[in-house]
Amino acid sequence: MTTHLPDPAPPQPGPVPLVAPPAPLPDAPEDGETAQAGGTARDRTAGPPAPGTPGAVGPAGRPRGLRGLPARLWRGRPEDPSWARPALLALLAATAALYVGNLSASGWANAFYSAAVQAGSVSWKAFFFGSSDASNFITVDKPPLALWPMALSARLLGLSSFSVLLPQALMGVAAVGTVYASVRRTSSPRAGLLAGALLALTPVAALMFRFNNPDALLVLLLALAAYAVQRAQEAASTRWLVLAGVLLGLGFLTKTLQAFLVLPAFALVYLATAPTGWWRRVRQLLLAGAAMTAAGGWWVAVVELLPASSRPYVGGSQDDSFLSLTFGYNGFGRLTGNETGSVGGGFRGGDLPGAPGGRGGMWGSTGATRLFDGDIGGQIAWLVPAALLLLALGLWAGRRAPRTDTARAGLLVWGGWLLCTGLTFSYMGGIFHQYYTVALAPAVAALVGMGADAAWRERDRAVPALALAAASAATGWWAYVLLGRSADFVPWLRYAVLAVGLAGAAALLGPVVARAVRPGAARAAARAATAGAVAAVAAGVAGPAAYSLDTVSTGHSGSIVTAGPAVSGGMGGPGGRRGRGGFPGFPGGAAPQGAGGFGGLRGGAGAGQGGTGGTGPGGLPALPGAGQNGRGGLPALPGGGQAGQGGSGQGGTGPGVTGQGRNGLPSFPGLPGLPGGTGPGGGRSGGVWGGGVRGGLGGLLEGARVGTAVTALLRQDASRYTWAAAAVGSQNAAGYQLASRQPVMAVGGFNGSDPAPGLAQFQEFVRQGRIHWFVAGGVGGGGGMGGSSDSSRIASWVEESFTARTVDGTTLYDLTQPKG
User: Fold this and answer.
1) Which of 320, 581, 767, 820 has the greatest number of beta carbons closer than 10 A?
2) pTM recorded for the entire structure
């Protein structure tokens, strides 16, 4: 293996290795250790003079210390070309502009998490536990680490949409810089810049780094962990490997077990390639595992050891246990589909008639093509074929490299990340949302950057040239397919990327063909290859960039959001885009453009009409009990006590459906139209469940729209009560809490299916005068979801015991004024 220069001279024929090792490391090694790298022993005890001592210098003789800091920041590493660091700073600035601009367009984004941020910004106890309200009744259904930066930002800047979302955008900039640094170590600055730019322009990244779900912090922590693993592998560094373990532990405190999907790949790569003895590698991995357990387990230990009376209820669990939540609803339940208390709980692959091949369910079909299908493909899959092709090429080219080769190890780290996480997403049978795929974005970007740069350096050889040409052609064709799913979105672009991608592929083959056919034309062919490379990059970037620009120019809100324009045949997204929200059409069925929605909700861009007592064309069959009271099965959707009005979401219309749904999933008021759509809103009356909630699925997926009069009522004498109000479902409660800035109890947690509080406990709270108002509407749990039905019983008791009052179209009950 030979060390390459970042800007090589025109390539010469010859057996030069495709994957080059990194430049020598400038960092001081660990004391007392010796490592073998490429067969050469390094003295790990020697090092430069300590900073601040006479004669102390950095790499290439540059002075160290604060005086040289500005120059180092601008100049970068001494072996880098002069343009590398300014180009990186320009990339980071452009990423910041992309992610921070128009940041408040999404409002509170996911009100579920914004309400917890509001609570944490006024209560340190709520901050620590991740409580949904400042009075600490119940937590969100995730650990709290992702909430902490947002809550600190709200404390510092004041609570606003901008202060909540700003940390997420900055995490996106940091993730781009981390991917650059990681790819730069095993490839070149050019590869790092390409990888960073591809990450920044990935549509789902542009969405989630401007949204307040935990995924933004998770992706940053995983990228940092990948960087740490690479640093550890280079010199068998215990410190870097322990740091990787700490970062994965923090990832667990961000989104529980999803952080560990990369763990098998990271551990195996280090075990197989680190330049030290076998048993030392094992010991180092055990130490890193202990660090990971400590970093992720300390908060869990506090929650599990504290008496239940001293902390809020663990939201999302059925037994007030964070371990149960981790391994059940948020853990293995996501793989099997058996998620007690979930909105789709109990549905396994094939349980829903009409699911494709019996492999689907409420969250779409599973299988190897899942990440390429429907609107999921437009989130992440633009460069996945190229990434896999270039990964295979890099591993083939480095097949004879030493075991400890760092370039190949880098490919394995990122390739293992992509395969482990991608296969899990493809086959998991439980809750799956399109935005989960942001966890693949760094790996895809890094593999394309590393692979394309390595192949370009050897473009005069047949195999690399063919690989580059194939990647360009496949990327152009695949972008053509993905853009075709949004036929009305920049309609000319799909033809342009196809033509440019194919032209780039032809030009990239020029040097090889010219050498074989007409050697005198090699110089002209080389120039054509350069133009082909530019064309290939343009073809690969154009589609994702267009989707990303559309994403950042549009507000997104709710629990399920998607990047880019509406997609034919997609799963949609409740409240996903302001003005374009709608509950997803279920996959399968006869309609090629998505399934029929419930009572007029869109299914992708072409929803069929759902009806009662029959099968909606191309959509979900009539559910047991539809059009009646919903007893014995899934209830009638949407309505409340009276028919919900049939509004129009984008892509289809349909009638309201009546029913109360008391013994199962309740009827959902006001589904037509959803936030920003053209529907008139929700049912105005009909008891507790007809409370006029204007969020998606009766407040399950979107925060409630709260009028000024209701806000004033909630604030009235709020200091006299522990909770200004109670409402079923966390999203429903979040809307009222964010409007009033007063604690609102989320009865039943996110889905309304948690046994918190029980009816007796709620009655005791009311007797003690701790809750002022009860807001009708929302989603109540029940046996149909496998969770608790306490929220339904509480709502029924309130309806029977207190007098309803309608304000701004919202039904409320004053719990201090019983009937009679």
Assistant:
1) 581
2) 0.80
